[in-house]
Specification:
By secondary structure, this protein is an alpha+beta fold. The protein is 29% helix and 20% strand. The strands form two sheets. Strands 1, 2, 3, 4, 8, 9 and 10 form a seven-stranded mixed beta sheet that branches.
Length: 206
């Protein structure tokens, strides 16, 4: 008498393994590889016609504590400046806004106010906030996502939007594209694109 029970178990196990391999293979072929977020933007803040100096150490993220791994990030790791370069904003997380950058600097920004370490500035009849993003005057930036190679000017003073656009906005750097092509130092460089092994482990759940 043949042992049909053992054969049936073998066929069942074979089917399970084959299904596992097929499902994993489909996941591997169809799932987009994940990419670490690492983008840069340029910006400047002007108050009464003078650029606010944000190059001091108190505004910078120390490289040695920078954590770009999204599973262990603090808010400061997601968006910051470093190496005393006030022109470049480094973004290491999805969904990061200009308001979050200001919060990390211990500033506060709204549509009608700007609070810095030294001043509480609010719109008045003679002085107002103006926001210029990528060459366009916009009503608000607090909740806007920081885009790769954005150029943002935040200006407070008596100048009209036209004057701000003409005289201050050209002083916003255009160097973000250069930083997109080179790694940040140390752990600030961010997570690399998925390796083949990482994609296989995710596809086959191990």
């Amino acid at each position: 008498m043949k042992n049909t029970g053992g054969r049936g178990v073998s066929l069942l196990l074979g089917g399970v393994v084959l299904g596992y391999l097929i499902t994993g293979g489909i996941r591997f072929l169809t799932e987009e590889p994940s990419h670490g977020v690492h983008l840069h933007a340029n910006w400047a803040v002007f108050i009464d016609g003078e650029r606010l100096d944000l190059s001091g150490d108190e505004y910078m993220q120390e490289i040695y504590v920078c954590m770009a791994d999204p599973e262990h990030q603090e808010p400061i790791d997601r968006v910051h400046m470093h190496e005393n370069n006030q022109d470049i904003v480094h973004v290491h997380g999805p969904g990061v806004t200009w308001g979050q950058l200001m919060t990390n600097l211990d500033f506060a920004l709204g549509d009608t106010f700007l609070f810095t370490h030294d001043a509480h500035l609010e719109n008045t009849d003679s002085q107002t906030l103006t926001f210029v993003l990528n060459g366009m005057v916009v009503p608000s930036v607090h909740n806007r996502l920081i885009g790769d190679r954005d150029r943002l000017l935040i200006s407070y003073g008596p100048e009209s939007p036209e004057e701000v656009l003409k005289t201050q906005y050209p002083q916003v750097a255009t160097t973000a594209i250069d930083y997109d092509t080179m790694p940040d130092p140390a752990s600030c460089s961010g997570p690399l694109d998925d390796t083949l092994g990482q994609r296989l482990r995710r596809a086959f759940w191990f």
